[in-house]
Design brief:
Elements lengths: L10 E4 L3 E9 L2 E8 L6 H4 L11 E7 L1 E6 L2 E6 L3 E4 L4 E4 L3 E8 H14 L1
Antiparallel strand pairs: 1-2, 2-3, 3-9, 4-7, 4-9, 5-6, 5-8
């Protein structure tokens, strides 16, 4: 079995608006500890991906704050204490400072992180 804490997980991406720590934890699954500041919008960084949205599925839990997930013409708000599944085709935006833990297929997630870091 593999486990990690936020502090043990390496930083994969850091900007003024976001910090993303990630670690492969088994098979082809990656855990990410993500922190977004209020107003952070991942939309600009996702430009160039299919439909300009994240093409990777995510399962996770909002530890702190609130964020909106845009999915084309719709959106949904996720709040502290909620578990979630985000299907491919979404764009996160922080409505408050927020922290969430996310589990994703490693290959798909690595491609998204590579794209985001190339846009920064």
């Amino acid at each position: 079995m593999t486990s990690t804490t936020r502090d043990e997980t390496p930083v994969a991406m850091q900007t003024d608006d976001a910090e993303l720590r990630k670690k492969e934890i088994g098979g082809d699954l990656t855990v990410a500890f993500i922190r977004l500041v209020k107003g952070a919008d991942m939309g600009p960084g996702l430009k160039g991906l299919p439909d300009d949205m994240c093409p990777c599925p995510h399962w996770g839990y909002v530890v702190k704050g609130r964020l909106k997930l845009r999915t084309g013409a719709d959106s949904e708000v996720y709040e502290e204490g909620q578990a979630f599944y985000w299907a491919p085709g979404h764009v996160p935006e922080a409505l408050e400072d927020c922290d969430f833990v996310d589990f994703s297929p490693t290959k798909d997630f690595d491609q998204v992180i590579s794209h985001l870091t190339s846009q920064a």
